[in-house]
Task: structure prediction
Amino acid sequence: MYWSLRTALGSYLYIMVVIIPLLIISIFSKAGDLPHLIARYWARFSLLCSGCTLEVKGEDNIPDGPAVYMPNHVSHFDVFAILGYLNVQFRWTVKKELFRIPLLGLGMKRAGYILIDRANHGKAMQSMYIAAHKIRHGTSIVIFPEGTRSCDGSLQYPFKKGGFHLAREAGVPIVPISVIGTREILPKQAIRVKPGAITLVIGKPILTEGRDVASLMEEVYKSIKLGYTV
Result:
């Protein structure tokens, strides 16, 4: 339990130390860029506290403009890895339950992350309109196409369609990301953190113009699976 306590205490200590500066900065940073930068270093500090290392492959695949990034999802540590080491300005789509976490939820709101209410289709669609607006103003979006964490580590398919519709309507590419090693650190429903090595494999951008959702979904699935072998 040592690494679990160290990770939790270090992560929340960082949040407690920076939450007041973040609130002040958010007043002057309406776009949320500076709060997002603070969050990036929170994620890196949390990984440091957990004893984890991280390697990024395929950074040259990151497009110059905004995109919808789609990683696989097996662990809470996917969030630390992507937030800390995906070197672009982006906003998460986040399930509403996470916004209820003290301090963390407030920080996410100030950073401009997008609340998704899975139980309310109308509100979920409204969130997609907000995401499209952010993309059109130059900010990328990260969305887990599986919708939730995989219990056994396998890639859950078919994916949720919302992110694919978002990319098509915004006219931006989809960038698949393979997250490797996080399940061994903290699988779903586990509480004990085990230090380990994480790899992010950033796939080639997939153009969405003129494509249907089904074919995009299949190509993203294949790209994420291919990333496991890199």
